[in-house]
Automatic annotation (TrEMBL):
A Pfam family that the UniProt record links to this protein: SBP_bac_3
GO biological process, one term: amino acid transport
Residues in Ionotropic glutamate receptor C-terminal domain copies: 48-260
Name the UniProt record assigns to this protein: ABC transporter, substrate-binding protein, family 3
Keyword Transferase recorded: no
Signal peptide (residue range): 1-22
Lineage top rank: taxon: Bacteria
CDD domains the record matches: PBP2_Cys_DEBP_like
Organism from which the protein derives: Lactobacillus johnsonii ATCC 33200
Alphabetically ordered keywords of this record: Signal, Transport
Domain Solute-binding protein family 3/N-terminal: 39-261
Cellular component GO terms, alphabetical: extracellular region; membrane; outer membrane-bounded periplasmic space
Any one GO molecular function term: ligand-gated monoatomic ion channel activity
Amino acid sequence: MKRKLRFFSLFIVLFSVFLLSACQKNTRNVYQEVKKSNEITWGVKADTRLFGLMSIKTGKIEGFEVDLANALTKEILGKNAKANFVQTTAKTKIPLLKNGNIDAVLAAMTITPERKKQIDFSDPYFYAGQSLLVKDDSTIKSIKDMNGKTALAVKGTTAVANVKKFAPKAKVLEFDDYGQAFTALKAGQGQAMTTDNGLLAGIATENKGYKLVGGTYTNEPYGIAVNKGQTQMRNAINRALVKLKKDGTYDALVKKWFSGIPGFNIKEAEGEK
């Protein structure tokens, strides 16, 4: 009986600690915390060219989103503020955010209804959408031209369903990753590779003789994610985004990373269709 009582008492103590921890997480005010520390910890990608990629030369993550995070940090907290970066993946970014390991996620994250159930998003900062990557001499000009042709896509993405929606008579070959899909394009197994325009732009920068065509045929904008209930932090990010767009900083960063890529429409990415 005494052992049962001790076990029950221990259970009550542990459960109380769990509840206290959960309450503390729910009552955190990230905006007030970053103001006090003068630092913001961002979850970013480190494997996606142009957005966030680990540099072999510097050992640091570099890209459009890293530069944008630095600019947002200084706009929100002041010129002496510090931006910290934590590498995230598709599987880790939401858990890291929910657990309080990072303050916000800036990692090519599409705003979706499903994700909105778990986290909150800022206004869009990059208007991504599905596009096509083809060889320079290709006769493909838009998604409609893919009817009767073969598109190359990655398994587990929305690309397959989107191709079928806009080009019902197209055939789609699926691969495990983007590297395999692009290799198939080079080998002539299909007439176009399809995924987000930003990801295709990254591939085009590394491979001469390829270009994006047809603009975007879906609307899948990226947003900055914060934990549920962090309204002050989200509002601060939105205000900072507006200021960076007004003073030209945002436009300069987009041009720095995406100008000169064959077929990539900068104005479209900025939301000016």
